[in-house]
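Problem 12. The chain below contains 428 residues. Write out its predicted structure in token notation.
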Amino acid sequence: MSSSSGYRDSKGRPIVVVTGMGIVTSLGRGRDDNWKALTAGRSGIHAITRFPTEGLRTTIGGTVDFVDAEPFCAPALSENLADIAVSEAIEQSVIGSKGDFPGPLFIAVAPVEMEWPQREELARSMNPDGPVDYHTLLQAARKGRQDLHDRFVFGGVAETLAGRYGTKGSPISLSTACASGATAIQLGVEAIRRGETDAALTVGTDGSVHAEALIRFSLLSALSTHNEPPEGASRPFSKNRDGFVMAEGAAALVLESMEHARARGARILGVMEGAGERADSFHRTRSNPDGHATIACLEAALDDAGVTPDDVDYINAHGTGTPENDKMEYLSVHTVFGDRAASLPISSNKSMIGHTLTAAGAVEAVFSLMTIAEGRIPPTINYDVPDPAIPLDVVPNTARDASVRRVISNSFGFGGQNVSLVMAAEPA
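Solution.
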């Protein structure tokens, strides 16, 4: 990135910076606890205790068990996780007064609702002798339990957070599968670049590890069945990888134009230099194995940032641990970075936190910015059986000290929905 005016990038747009970050995953609550665990190579994957798993092929996950979860209601947990992350991000940014955030909210939320046991209980409480169908449930919630009705609609989490933190305009709820958290950041960046706002609150949250979701992903043969030991299940880029591990978490980033941040004396944590987005519309769950969309996504992100592949010091991989996705990501990275792909550090946070699904893009953006700030690259753990078909420097098993000024973070979602983000240190 270059700037002639100080606050504009090489394309003449406002430079977008990060002034606040918050995070919660199965590794812990807050930036400090998460970073210590991540760089120590500690896994947050464990046996699921929230609901019975007898008879299931997968019985493990990265559930956040230290945050209250209303039974059978994923939106409630997603809201609680997001609240923790947003509170930490706004506190760090020191922006606005409490409950008066000076910009819009863009939030990635899982497209899930409460599970059927709670739906039936609600419907019967309002209409004991009537049918238990969707219409009756909706009417019961609307008449007698407005709080549950608010959670029933997709935008309920966003509306609650917008009211609590005083964001401006209509809150935007979005879902682009596993790229959602990165999409939220992209929308915030674009709003600031267009001059619509000086600041934006961007969030990714997902608390949807429940029995129904676990069974659905299991039926797709997408989940690891390496239940013992749980912490050894997520094995991105390894030859013996057998699927991803469902997980929960949330992350929030306060974005501002550099001019706005500097004017108020804010501490700048990093620069959001570029975002690239491409979809391939190949399959409902699979990305096209030829990688054309993910290749174009990486290229678009670099072009948007005004940098070349040689300017990137580290890649925060999507790295789910599924056989097909890891192979496709390698193809994409090798195509874009050429021979340098073999020596460029690329590691997967998911080896330790699992796949936080809708939240992943935001969670991994926070970790990417911390990598820049701390000069330490988190490892890919469980890398004991290298895959000769994927010759990458995955920072195996142990964190590595390194000078990192620029990171590209990949989020490749179901249905071929892909976003790559380019983040960099504050320019000197």
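Discussion. The chain has a mean pLDDT of 91. Students who got a different answer should revisit the alignment rule from Section 12.3.
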